[in-house]
């Protein structure tokens, strides 16, 4: 990125910080759709990108969660995270104890802060693995130690499946209502600003809403054009639980799950992408965002990280949304049946 462009972005950031609504107007009011933020008619408007990347979803506890985030499962180095934060405007970073990369994420956060980003601007999620179900506070304190943070913005129960006893057959006696009490304690102690769940289905959510003192703020689940989970999404919307879509590109490198199909090669997504002069990945991400979901996508590549976050400025017509809706095939990538640690249970399909 050239010096002039960095300076321009910096000025835009400052203006944006103080008058986001005015900027929205000046951008759309310009003839030819070219405003101060656009370097040329063909360029993606930097002003619009900045405006959109700062877009957040307001959670049921009043906290704001940035609508587009960087997943870090299997991320190889912290440079891509640092670059994504500092240069591309990512503010939401998703990690988990079980990814064994909280230290790496911590290095990226440190570098971003050294580059002038404040901790308050960042939204950091980590997750409780089932080995920590008996004491979520202890597990979170350990995660915070690895992340070198005083608090996380979001703490999630990663999977609603308790560990096995040594016999590998009997579940440990840690019922979910007890685990949730531990999660609530994390909020009371100020070490998690918000708490939520992941991979919960409607039945588990109903149960949780019946016993929770603090209702879950979000449910992080697999959502992409081949696995749309419409019923679950409608339930979450009705009960004020934000949906965070993981594997939004259907995790194309994964060997397990699904039907071996790759949404990035889908002819309909390709056709829509051609008409927007974008990529199928950007169309899949834009569709998910337009449903109202928070979206977290992972890449080890800074060019693809830029491509992905630019999806925030793609607007799909209702006809295009309907076309993508027709691609639903109930093809789940992350299927616990593949995983011995969960006893190869074919859960939540
Ligand atoms: N709560 C849960 O149980 C759970 C489960 C799974 C995932 N997650 C979270 O969700 C995040 C995202 O899910 P995910 O990583 O499985 O899947 P994903 O974001 O759908 O796909 C990631 C894969 O797509 C490739 N990719 C990324 N951008 C691309 C682009 N523009 N064009 C072509 N290929 C592209 C990446 O390869 P390169 O790296 O080579 O670019 C990577 O192989 C995870 O990192 C994790 O933080 C949570």
UniProtKB/TrEMBL annotation:
The record marks 127 as: Lowers pKa of active site Tyr. GO terms for molecular function: oxidoreductase activity, acting on the CH-OH group of donors, NAD or NADP as acceptor. The keyword Nucleus does not apply. InterPro entries: AKR, Aldo/ket_reductase_CS, NAD(P)_OxRdtase_dom_sf, NADP_OxRdtase_dom. Residues 1-26 form the signal peptide. It comes from the Eukaryota. Residues 84-328 form the NADP-dependent oxidoreductase domain. Keywords: Oxidoreductase, Signal. The active site is at residue 99. This is NADP-dependent oxidoreductase domain-containing protein. It comes from Euplotes crassus.
